[in-house]
Design brief:
Strand content of chain A: over 45%
Helix content of chain A: under 10%
Number of strands of chain A: 11
Shape of chain B: globular
Largest sheet of chain B: 7 strands, mixed
Low-confidence stretches of chain A: none
Helix content of chain B: under 10%
Distance between the termini of chain B: 37 Å
Largest interface: A-B, 23 and 26 residues
Shape of chain A: globular
Radius of gyration of chain A: 13 Å
Order of helices and strands of chain A: EEEEEEEEEEE
Order of helices and strands of chain B: EEEEEEEEEEE
Oligomer: heterodimer
Mean pLDDT of chain B: 93
C-alpha cells in the first residue's frame, strides 16, 4: 500500500501570515502531485498540480516538490479566514488511473 | 465548465436494502471513480472505471459493486446495506489516466439505520 502522509493538524495561523502544509509520500515512482482544498461538508476542489521538482506559483499559492526527499508542500501567502479548510495531498498511484490521498491537514486562519 | 453531479445529497436507508448511488459527468471524461470518506480515514477508493463496461477494484471494494453502461454515468451499488457503510460517498472523473485532475461531485451522505 502506497502511503501519503500529512500532519492532521489543526494548523492555526493568524490572518496575513504564511501557512505551510506538508506531505510525504512513499512511492518513488510517483510523477503527479495534487493539492485539494475541502471545506467542511463539501467535496474536494483542486488548488494546484505539480509534476516537476521545484516551485510552482499560482496567485497566493505555491506548491513545492522535492522528489529526492519524497516531499511536497503547499504555501499559502497572506492567509485569509476563507482559507480555513482541510487540505488534501494526492499522489498518482501505480495503477495509472487513481490517486492516493493523504488524510488531510486542517487549517484554521484566525482574524 | 466542469460538472459532476450525484443523484442525492443525503440518503437514509435501512440495513439490508439495496442502494444505488448515481454519478453523471458532462465532460466526456474517460475515467470515473467512487470514493468514500470517513473521519480519520480520509478518502478511500472503492472502484474505478477507465472505459464503458470496464471496472477495477480499488482499496475497499467489499460490499460494493459498480456499473458503467454509458460513458457519462457511473453507478455505485450497495447490494445489502450495512451500518458500517454509513459514510460520505464521492464520485470523481478525469480525462486521462495519471497526470490529470480529478473533478469531484458534491457527494452523497448516506446513513444506514
Amino acid at each position: 500500500q502506497k502511503e501519503v502522509e500529512q500532519n492532521s493538524g489543526p494548523l492555526s495561523v493568524p490572518e496575513g501570515a504564511i501557512a505551510s502544509l506538508n506531505c510525504t509520500y512513499s512511492d518513488r515512482g510517483s510523477q503527479s502531485f495534487f493539492w485539494y482544498r475541502q471545506y467542511s461538508g463539501k467535496s474536494p476542489e483542486l488548488i494546484m498540480s505539480i509534476y516537476s521538482n521545484g516551485d510552482k506559483e499560482d496567485g497566493r499559492f505555491t506548491a513545492q516538490l522535492n522528489k529526492a526527499s519524497q516531499y511536497v508542500s503547499l504555501l499559502i501567502r497572506d492567509s485569509q479566514p476563507s482559507d480555513s479548510a482541510t487540505y488534501l495531498c494526492a499522489v498518482n498511484s501505480n495503477s495509472g488511473y487513481a490517486l492516493n490521498f493523504g488524510k488531510g491537514t486542517s487549517l484554521l486562519v484566525t482574524p | 465548465d466542469v460538472k459532476v453531479t450525484q443523484s442525492s445529497r443525503y440518503l437514509v436507508k435501512r440495513t439490508g436494502e439495496k442502494v444505488f448511488l448515481e454519478c453523471v459527468q458532462d465532460m466526456d471524461h474517460e475515467n470515473m471513480f467512487w470514493y468514500r470518506q470517513d473521519p480519520g480515514l480520509g478518502l478511500r477508493l472503492i472502484y474505478f472505471s477507465y472505459d464503458v463496461k470496464m471496472k477495477e477494484k480499488g482499496d475497499i471494494p467489499e460490499g460494493y459493486s459498480v456499473s458503467r453502461e454509458k460513458k457519462e454515468r457511473f453507478s455505485l451499488i450497495l447490494e445489502s446495506a450495512s451500518t458500517n457503510q454509513t459514510s460520505m460517498y464521492l464520485c470523481a472523473s478525469s480525462l486521462l489516466p495519471q497526470s490529470e485532475t480529478q473533478y469531484f461531485g458534491p457527494g452523497t451522505r448516506l446513513l444506514v439505520l
